[in-house]
């Protein structure tokens, strides 16, 4: 059993498949230097802490190695004389290439993928002519009627597992120390605990309060879902039919939708999904880089934007409403390329995810699937009045707001809004 984005033991279909196919299972994880390089210190910390949580649950029987999976997995398969190798399917562009290479390198040993990190796997929800959806709302309708399986009841005890210390030259490494401290505890057990608390305390009011960064009432499941510490069908099974529950399910559908978009248009990770916008004038001169740095540092002089940017830099998280606003500000008020901001988010976020992040950015930029028209420009002051009415969120992250130390607005929002619309008008 080769774990990747499914760092848990419960509700894990490939683990069941592995157990059914032989006597003993070896559970392993390969630290891939290519992903280590691109993950950012927070996501690496979350990964390593998740592995530690698993290893504890498995009484030290998790085998962690470092290297290229297309070399390490076949080597381990030979070392334990494996009958088959089991994984959850990975639909990301990188994951698909990597798994193709591993399957080939395994030769005659079957490589079996079952399940995925999504309620409905990418590619499954299509229009009646088989084409993928480009708009969320009809996708959502179809997604609901497609449905998903119930949680799988997987479990394993250490005695069913190959003891890695009995494998000669296993290449085992110690799980690396977390490079940075996290604002959120990682791992399957932490995920379950957090989910239960959310269901009891905040799910009932989720529909009304989810847009309020000051209240801090969203589930914080994003990083757990990213690393598979919990599966979304485990969440969906707990939801019920309340308004809060239905609003939550819709967000899980958004996550599936963006994975589906990336699956069908892998180029949209770093290029405008809608190429009509390729010719828009963007600022990339020296002063653009200075404005980018001001935005990153949370010194724009727009308090809600700055609060979000500082929450991101200090904690590796930002509330969704503020992600939308800070992204809109970078693109529409500062006229910078959305992919600059997307890269900064990926560097900082614990939950940084290619599908949700890049398409969240394209939504804000107006270059993505078409739910957000390009002419919608968030007004930072109106947003603050509506979603942080008492200024509590700003106070938390920008304590000097209101004093002389706080900068003046770096731009005139009204003028930059006009400028953004003028540039769109040109194309
Ligand atoms: P909750 O409100 O509790 O939502 C529950 C779950 O639904 C989330 O954990 C998430 O898995 C999913 N979800 C909610 N909103 C969205 C959405 N708009 N798109 C996709 N899935 C959603 N989410 C990431 O997981 N990783 C990212 O890198 C990421 N980058 C983003 C960048 C931008 C510019 C924007 C606008 C949104 C981004 N999102 C991203 C989506 C969303 O902001 C986060 O999922 C959410 O804030 C996580 O907090 P939560 O778990 O408390 O959310």
Using brief descriptors, characterize the structure shown.
Rossmann fold; three-stranded parallel β-sheet; single chain; DNA Cyclobutane Dipyrimidine Photolyase, subunit A, domain 3; mainly alpha; binds flavin-adenine dinucleotide; Serine Threonine Protein Phosphatase 5, Tetratricopeptide repeat; two-stranded parallel sheet; 427 residues; 4% strand
Characterise the protein shown here.
The longest helix has 22 residues, at 243-264. The protein is mainly α. α13 (303-315) crosses α14. It is built from 19 helices and 5 strands. It has helices at residues 13-21, 33-38, 40-57, 69-79, 93-106, 136-146, 188-201, 206-209, 222-226, 232-237, 243-264, 286-297, 303-315, 320-333, 338-348, 354-365, 380-387, 392-397, 413-426, and strands spanning 2-3, 27-31, 62-66, 85-87, 111-113. The chain has 3 domains: 1-116, 3-Layer(aba) Sandwich (Rossmann fold), CATH 3.40.50.620; 118-151 and 189-264, Serine Threonine Protein Phosphatase 5, Tetratricopeptide repeat, CATH 1.25.40.80; 275-426, DNA Cyclobutane Dipyrimidine Photolyase, subunit A, domain 3. The chain starts with a strand and ends with a helix. The chain is globular and about 70 Å long. Helix content is 49%, strand content 4%. β4, α5 (93-106) and β5 (111-113) form a beta-alpha-beta unit. Strands 1-2-3 form a 3-stranded parallel beta sheet, sandwiched between helices. Strands 4-5 form a two-stranded parallel ribbon. The chain binds flavin-adenine dinucleotide (FAD). Flavin-adenine dinucleotide (FAD) binds at residues 210, 218-222, 225-226, 251-252, 254-255, 258, 320, 323-324, 327, 345, 349, 351-353, 356-357, 360-361, 364. Flavin-adenine dinucleotide (FAD) is lined by residues 210, 218-222, 225-226, 251-252, 254-255, 258, 320, 323-324, 327, 345, 349, 351-353, 356-357, 360-361, 364. This is DNA photolyase family protein. It comes from Gordonia tangerina. Residues 1-119 form the Photolyase/cryptochrome alpha/beta domain. Its cofactor is FAD. Pfam families: DNA_photolyase, FAD_binding_7.
């Amino acid at each position: 059993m080769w774990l990747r984005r499914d760092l848990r033991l419960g509700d894990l279909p490939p683990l069941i498949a592995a157990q059914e196919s032989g006597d003993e299972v070896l559970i392993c994880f390969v630290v891939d230097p290519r992903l280590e390089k691109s993950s950012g210190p927070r996501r690496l910390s979350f990964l390593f802490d998740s592995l530690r949580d698993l290893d504890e649950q498995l009484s030290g029987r998790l085998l962690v190695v470092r290297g290229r999976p297309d070399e390490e997995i076949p080597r381990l398969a030979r070392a334990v004389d494996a009958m088959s190798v089991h994984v959850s399917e990975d639909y990301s562009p990188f994951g698909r290439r990597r798994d193709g290479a591993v399957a080939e390198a395994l030769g005659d040993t079957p490589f079996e993928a079952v399940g995925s990190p999504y309620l409905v796997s990418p590619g499954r929800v299509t229009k009646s002519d088989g084409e993928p959806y480009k708009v969320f709302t009809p996708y959502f309708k179809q997604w609901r009627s497609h449905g998903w399986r119930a949680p799988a009841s997987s479990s394993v005890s250490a005695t069913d597992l190959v003891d890695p210390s009995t494998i000669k030259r296993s290449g085992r490494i110690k799980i690396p120390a977390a490079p940075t401290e996290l604002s959120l505890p990682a791992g399957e057990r932490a995920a379950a605990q957090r989910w239960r608390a959310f269901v009891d305390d905040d799910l009932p009011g989720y529909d009304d309060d989810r847009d309020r960064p000051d209240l801090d009432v969203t589930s914080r499941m994003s990083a757990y879902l990213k690393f598979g510490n919990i599966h979304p069908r485990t969440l969906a099974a707990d939801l019920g039919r309340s308004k809060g529950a239905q609003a939550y399910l819709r967000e899980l559908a958004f996550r599936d939708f963006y994975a589906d978009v990336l699956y069908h248009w892998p180029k949209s990770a770093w290029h405008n999904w809608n190429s009509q916008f390729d010719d828009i004038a963007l600022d990339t001169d020296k002063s653009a880089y200075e404005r980018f740095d001001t935005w990153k540092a949370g010194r724009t002089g727009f308090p809600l934007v700055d609060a979000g940017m500082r929450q991101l830099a200090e904690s590796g998280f930002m509330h969704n409403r503020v992600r939308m606003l800070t992204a809109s500000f970078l693109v529409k008020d500062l006229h910078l390329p959305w992919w600059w901001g997307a890269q900064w988010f990926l560097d900082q976020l614990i939950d940084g995810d290619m599908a949700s992040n890049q398409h969240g950015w394209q939504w804000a930029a107006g270059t993505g699937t078409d739910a957000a028209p390009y002419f919608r420009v968030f007004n930072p002051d109106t947003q603050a009045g509506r979603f942080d009415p008492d200024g509590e969120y700003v106070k938390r992250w920008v304590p000097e707001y209101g004093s002389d130390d706080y900068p003046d607005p770096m731009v005139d929002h009204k003028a930059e809004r006009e400028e953004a619309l003028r540039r769109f008008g040109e194309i």
